[in-house]
Amino acid sequence: MKRLTVLLLVVTLTLLGQVVEARRDGGNNRGGLTERQAAEAAQRQTGGQVLSVKPASNGYRVRVLTRDGEVREIVVPDSGR
Fold it and tell me: What's the pTM?
């Protein structure tokens, strides 16, 4: 009985750790592409400041404020990694 309790505790903590790590890594993990990765890709592409990241059917839509003061929407496709 004691071994079963310890085993259940270990399994529960392992699963909880995976959930916490998934949330820390950007939340909505869509086939390997996270919100954080999409934001970084859009920022590198435009050199601007990321305003928002929203899930789209094919990846993420990222709104960016460019250095010229324009707000652009960049679609970052899910690469399926």
Answer: 0.60
